[in-house]
Write a structure and sequence with these properties.
Strand content: 15-25%
Number of helices: 12
Bound molecules: ligand BJW, zinc ion
Largest sheet: 6 strands, parallel
Helix content: 40-55%
Radius of gyration: 18 Å
Order of helices and strands: HEHHHHHHEHEEEHEHEHEEH
């Protein structure tokens, strides 16, 4: 792992720091990613699961998939990458963290100014009357059964953003503003394949930020950024934090 002196200097001096994270930051906690070998999309194609048509066609399959992921998420904990970002927030006057992850691990690690761009898997609601339900309602269903609303019998879904759906307005608006205003922008553990989130580091760069990504391999947007730091985020982020604290 190596990062440039320029990144350390820009980050140490930065007044405004903004960050985008993706599935890669939670990989070291034991949460599978989507597009890596062995990731979630290897067994299930996104078009089969992460859109509303697929859900209406086969609710049991999609509910089962989220119940399974809910179980994983309940059994894991934040890793040093999540904690380093929470510490970085404390060290900066203006800090914003936009995450595409639905696992809630940033909040669990103590990050405060967090926008969950793709929702949160632990919130469940009825697609007809919008009454919130509990995670338990998905977790207890037997294989092949459908989880339904206690009030109206409608289908229960997780409060996440599927393909073709709008991102939560306020979360995206604040992430976009933070990207435009950032002095330094970090894109961590994301393939840069899904928009509009993947456009945020590019927007930051267009507005003069120094933009670095941290990933075990260059992402799809790497060529548009200033620097790719190759390595696991659970190792790179704590090292970067140490470097700027000692600057
Ligand atoms: C490590 C590591 C370690 C591993 N350390 N790194 C512009 C152009 C083209 C298409 C579009 C466009 N704008 C919109 C679209 C359409 C679409 C889209 O982007 N399609 C693309 C496939 C091209 N976008 C949408 O539909 C979005 N909505 C929207 O645009 O609304 C407006 C609209 C509405 C109606 C009509 C038209 C427009 C919504 C996107 C929602 C995405 N939802 C999902 C599922 C969420 C719920 C769930 O979790 O189940 O979000 S899909 C999935 O991908 C999930 C993720 O958040 C997202 C991104 O994945 P991520 O996080 O990057 O994970 P991976 O696995 O891809 O990558 C992991 C990375 O980590 C890798 O790079 C590894 O190398 C790395 N890594 N270990 C550091 N230890
Ligand atoms: Zn209902």
């Amino acid at each position: 792992m190596s990062f440039s002196d320029r990144l350390v200097e820009r980050l140490a001096r930065a007044d405004r720091v903004a960050v985008l994270t993706g599935a890669g930051i939670s990989a070291e906690s034991g949460v599978p990613t989507f597009r890596d070998p062995g990731g979630l999309w290897q067994k299930f194609k996104p078009e089969e699961l992460a859109n509303v048509e697929a859900f209406l066609r086969n609710p049991e399959l999609v509910q089962g998939w989220y119940a399974h992921r809910g179980e994983i998420i309940r059994s894991v904990a934040p890793n040093p990458g999540h904690y380093a970002l929470a510490e970085l927030e404390q060290a900066k006057r203006h800090f914003h963290l936009a995450t595409q992850n639905v696992d809630g691990l940033h909040l669990q690690a103590g990050s405060q100014n967090v926008a969950e761009l793709h929702g949160n898997l632990r919130r469940i609601y009825c697609i007809d009357c919008e009454t919130p339900a509990s995670e338990h309602d998905l977790a207890v269903i037997e294989k092949g059964e459908t989880a339904r609303c206690m009030s109206c019998g409608g289908l229960l879904r997780p409060d996440v953003v599927w393909f073709g759906e709008m991102l939560p307005h306020d979360a995206y608006a604040e992430a976009y503003l933070a990207a435009r205003q950032a002095d330094v922008y970090l894109s961590v553990g994301t393939s840069g394949a899904v928009y509009p989130a993947a456009g945020l580091p590019i927007e930051a760069k267009r507005n003069g930020a120094y933009v670095a990504e941290i990933n075990i391999q260059p992402s799809e947007i790497a060529f548009q950024l200033d620097e790719t730091v190759l390595g696991q985020s659970g190792e790179v982020l704590p090292a970067l934090l140490q470097a700027i604290l000692g600057f």
